[in-house]
Amino acid sequence: MSASATRPENGPSVQLHDVGMSFGHKQVLSDIDLEISPGHFVALVGPSGAGKSTLLRLLNGSHLPTAGRVSVLGSEPATCSRRELQQLRTRIGFVFQQFGLVGRLSAMENVLMGALGSLRMPRYGVSTYPRDLRVRAAENLERVGLLEERFQRCDTLSGGQQQRVAIARTLMQDAEIVLADEPVASLDPSASLSVLETLRRLSAEDGFTVVCSLHQVDLALRISDRIVAVRDGAIVLDRATSQTDETELRSIYSDRAAA
Amino acid sequence: MSVSTPVRPAPVTSEAREPRPPRAAVATWLIPLGYVAVALFGTWWIAIDLAALRDGASDISRLLARMVPVTFGLVPALLGLVLETLWIALAGTGIAALVSLPLAAAASRDFTGPKPVQWLARGLIVVTRAVPSLVFAIVFVRIFGLGPFAGALAIAFHSVGMIAKMMTDVFEELTPAPRESIDAVGSSRLQSFVATTLSRAMPSVSSLVLYRLDINIRASAVLGLVGAGGIGVALQTAIGSLNYHLAAGIIVVIAVLLLALELISFLSQRAVAEHAHDGTVAELYRRTPDPTRPGWNRGRALRTGSAVVFAGALLFALTQVRFDPGRLSRSWQSTLDLLAGFVPPVIDPAVVTGIFESLVMALTATTVGVVAGLVIAVLSSPHLIRFAPLSALLRILVVLIRSVPDVIYALVFVAALGLGPFAGFLALSISCTALAAKFFTDSLENVDPAPLRALEATGASRLQVFVSGVWPRFVPSLIGNSLFTSDLALRESAVLGIVGAGGVGFVLQESVATLDYGTTAGVLICLVVVVVALEAVARWARKKVI
């Protein structure tokens, strides 16, 4: 484990020990052990229904594990109060497949929403946010290449642009870790690659950790430092990206019966 | 309406059996049958027969003759009351909209706070929705005294239920993704609600509040009958002093006011439809040299401008109805007295008979209205008869009839025919006919024309096209709208007793006047139960038919 932390945190960003998760009788994850160091870009691959989304949601406390221990940025969501969980979440960015933007509001306002965790009162409209946050929002939009589109309605932007707005929103949080759940599944191949490259560049510049679920093996190989493959709720492969290849990863998707 | 429950559960072998015919068939004949049965009973209870109708017609025409020529009395005073009517509606709607927001948020499925808060919110919505504004007005006049303040509060209380119910539906239709993603940034519940739910619901919420304002102006026009301000005060005075010329003049003023309102809402709906795509212009703010400053463009000016105008109008309306929090707190004692008097509620035979009579009046009038409305709708839609002047004439007639609130019909009929449910039944029948005619005409016109053309092409006659092409697709709307009509009719028939036209309204008004608050509570409880039960039946039937 390298300790190349650009952040004050010295321990691992994420630590899962013997984690299991079930919804009712349905066992979704079992015996998950995982440790992710700060600043790494980890791709989570595996067929749909393997438990990737559930794993990501365990990391921001949307789900609580039914077995084992989950620790993120030094806290355990399971033992947090509502207030503490809120605090923890301001440090964790989350990027969704469906972007999660308010379509009828401007790109700027959607980005500003990322800072709500640092504000006390509710906000309605761009001009209700303090000026320093607006300066940062404009900077972050520039970093994802959308400064010109700042006052456009989000639902008039392309899919790739909308996902960049969502990424700029996580930048407002100064997140130490960004969780991305199939962020490019709704995008065409060229937009997919450029969105992932943006995320990779920002992670390198700001030093935040990324855990990104993907179902495109080729993209995972191009973009990540490390690949974790999940199938049927268990980790079946976990190694540096340079030490695996497309053939090996493809095999995880085929011969399902062998498991 | 009788719903038979099976004595024994059916054996669970359905898979092996023949597929059952669609259940819709049962409801489509059960519901009309129920209506007809109640209507037959109603004719006996209210003592409706041909002789009564003939005598009634001549009594009414004699009264109408006594109303000519119409006079308007002091015109400035009358205009003042018209304005007061508008302020009552505006103040009531505004208060209701503001109170509805948190209530709807708490009642919505997505609410994550304590469950008891959610139950309380849902309960409040159901109860305030079920109680008509005139009923609230009777109670509030007792607490706050005569005048528009009680009226505005009455409008507000009833509208809270209506607006919050519709807002809840709007909130629940929104996709959860934006809310989840803002929850994930560590925002508070309130922040996340405002940023993702309220911001997305805003267009629908504004249009449903405007729609309520329209309905509330209609309701405010008659609040004066119980002394709660507005133009109805003048009408009450004129009728009370048997000045029928003036009463007719005031009814004309009310009708003109409501017709103007109808026109405005028609024109504004058309304008909104024409400009529906303006809302999706890409640029929400003009860009300025400073990238962080949103500039002004037409859209932003319009949004901000209309918000400022509405807020200003609401504040002004509140001053006009003499709304002040001090008054609310001074009335604390009488509110407590009233609430203390509610316990224990008294449900005596008078209350039960009154509620029963209201229900019978409403359902009988609905049956009459549905049949008459159906005839009018068929004649004014182009399926069977294509004679434009007739259709135009019928449409104008329906609009004119609808421009007079049914309590006013009841008031006139009571003056002509004397006290009792017969006057109420006639008034309700007229308004149900107009309402049903409007609903049915709309849905007959919206029947998809393509299959009808195909039938015509096979050489079928107009009647054949109507029977096999139009009717089957019209039946769900016929049943749905009939149920909706009886829902509205029930609330109306509960208040007609205020002018002596039968039903529970009289018991209610008497109980408040004599400080017999236990009976008041009994009436309110029965009313809520019956309205909610009818709604449940309607929901069940709609699910079966549509």
Give a quick rundown of the structure.
Chain A: GO terms for molecular function: ATP binding. The complex is a heterodimer of chains A (259) and B (546). Chain A contains 8 helices and 9 strands.
Can you characterise this structure?
- By secondary structure, chain A is of the alpha/beta class.
- Mean pLDDT of chain A is 90; it is low at 1-8.
- Chain A is built from eight helices and nine strands.
- In chain A, the strands form two sheets. Chain A has a six-stranded mixed beta sheet with strand order 5-6-7-3-8-9, sandwiched between helices. A three-stranded antiparallel beta sheet of chain A has the order 2-1-4.
- Helices cover 32% and strands 23% of the residues of chain A.
- Chain A is globular, with a radius of gyration of 18 Å.
- Chain B contains 21 helices and no strands.
- Classes of the chains: A alpha/beta (259), B mainly alpha (546).
- The A-B interface holds A 60, 62, 86-94, 96, 98-106, 108, 113-117, 119, 121-124, 126-127, 131, 134-135, 137-138, 147-148, 150-153, 155-156, 166, 169-170, 172-173 and B 175, 177-178, 180-188, 190-196, 198-200, 203, 279-287, 291-295.
- Chain A: Residues 14-257 form the ABC transporter domain.
- Chain A: It comes from Nocardioides luteus.
Shape of chain A: globular
Domain count of chain B, please report it. Answer: 2
Number of helices of chain A: 8
Q: Radius of gyration of chain B over alpha carbons? A: 25 Å
Task: Give me the secondary-structure category of chain A.
Answer: alpha/beta
Shape category of chain B: globular
Distance between the termini of chain A: 29 Å
SS-based class of chain B = mainly alpha
User: What would CATH call the class of the largest domain in chain B?
Assistant: Mainly Alpha
- Examine the coordinates and then state which fold CATH places here, giving the name of the CATH topology of the largest domain in chain A: Rossmann fold
> What share of residues of chain A is helical?
25-40%
Tell me the domain tally of chain A: 2
Uncertain regions of chain B: pLDDT < 50 for 5+ in a row?
A: 1-16
- How large is the share of residues in beta strands of chain A? 15-25%
Give the % helix of chain B.
over 70%
Biggest sheet: strand arrangement of chain A: 5-6-7-3-8-9
